[in-house]
Amino acid sequence: MSEVDRQLRNAVRESRHGGPSQRALDELAARAEREGLIDVAYGQADSPFGPLTVATTDAGLVLLAYPELSIDDVLERLAREISPRVLAAPRRVDPIRRELDEYFEGRRREFDQPVDWRLVHGGFFEAILRATAELGYGETVSYREIAERAGNVKAVRAAGNGLGSNPVPIVVPCHRVVATGGGLGGYTGGVERKQQLLALEGSLAA
Amino acid sequence: MSLPPFQVLIDSHGAVVHRFLVASVGPIDADDCFQEVWIAALRAYPELRSDDNLRGWLLKIAQRKAIDAHRAAGRRPAPAESLPEIPVPPGEPIDGEPRLWAHVRALPEKQRMAVFLRSVADLEYAEVSAALDCSEDAARRNVHEGLKRLREELAR
């Protein structure tokens, strides 16, 4: 390595300006937001299950991911299915973060943030999830019941699949759909979480 | 083809773009320039036809914005259609930055870019030539000439 190369490398290393400051990055995100250049904004929200990744578009909350999902995979999916203009913009997710906080503290019984349904593929899946979104706090129904409310009482299995594909669990409360005969049925985030959410809502002994 | 999430670009290439700007326009203007680069990239991003060499694409935007900043500052006469090749005097290093940066900034545009991309950003010559829209030979020549000039400046 030449003397100049070495000095260049040292200059890079020693420089206090080796990368953008956090302030520069925050200002960039703020300006991108002001200029309407963020198609999907994401950030984190606290939960008893660990940090959730939440993503919003202009239309509303589009995705809520449990902690075990890799953030890289989540962002890839958003880029592929919505727009590559996916940016970390914590301020944009503040409203839903606050609502989730209140929900987990037992101070909120329904969510006011609108849902963007565009990651839901298939008319029947969307009907199932929209019917699910109507379920009240602490209310539970069977898979058959939700299939019926979505307009096809025979499509119980499809209803289960639709609930399993829910891109915004908790907020669209698929945990309130349970098996008949005392079982809980499945849950994408793990059945213990379903149990915990139902216990929080008082519809199940903790 | 599916483009990576934009945040991944910022996370992976933000530092190299920023260092390039510090070397090009100095630490004081680098932050403003940094914002201009990424906003321009974000605007153009959905229309991008290829995800090859995204770093080269970003550095090309950074190069344009650095030239804009030089022009705005009136630091050098700027012909409209070609890159300015007239070196400016090094001037004083800014608040404790390595003396070398002042010399790097004083290199003619193409040499400065080529030296930065090769020696600081560690790009291969093929990537340097893609970022600079020149042949690989020209990229090698510019790196060589730029380093030679730096060596002379530093020997003084």
Key features of this structure:
A: 206 residues; alpha/beta; Double Stranded RNA Binding Domain; Arc Repressor Mutant, subunit A; four-stranded mixed beta sheet; two-stranded parallel sheet; 6 strands; 12% strand; elongated; B: 156 residues; mainly alpha; Butyryl-CoA Dehydrogenase, subunit A, domain 3
- Poorly predicted runs of 5 or more residues of chain A: none
CATH class of the largest domain in chain A: Alpha Beta
SSE succession of chain A: HHEEEHEHHEHHEH
Would you tell me the overall average pLDDT of chain A? 91
Question: Sheet with the most strands of chain B?
Answer: none
Q: How large is the share of residues in beta strands of chain A?
A: 5-15%
CATH architecture of the largest domain in chain A: 2-Layer Sandwich
Q: Fraction of residues of chain A in helices?
A: 40-55%
Q: How many distinct domains of chain A?
A: 2
Q: Give the overall silhouette of chain B.
A: globular
CATH-scheme architecture of chain B: Up-down Bundle
How many helices of chain B in DSSP terms?
7
Largest interface: A-B, 41 and 38 residues
Name of the level-1 CATH class of chain B: Mainly Alpha
User: What's the alpha carbon Rg of chain B, rounded to whole Å?
Assistant: 15 Å
Your description of this structure?
The complex is a heterodimer of chains A (206) and B (156). Chain A is an alpha/beta fold and 206 residues long. Chain A has 8 helices and 6 strands; from the N terminus they run ααβββαβααβααβα. Chain A has a 4-stranded mixed beta sheet with strand order 3-2-1-4, sandwiched between helices. A two-stranded parallel ribbon of chain A has the order 5-6. Chain A is elongated. Chain B has 156 residues and is mainly alpha-helical. Chain B has one domain: Butyryl-CoA Dehydrogenase, subunit A, domain 3, CATH 1.20.140. Chain B has 7 helices and no strands. In chain B, helix 1 packs antiparallel against helix 2, helix 1 packs across helix 4 and helix 2 packs across helix 3. Chain B starts with 5 loop residues before the first helix and ends with a helix. The interface between A and B is large, with 41 and 38 residues.
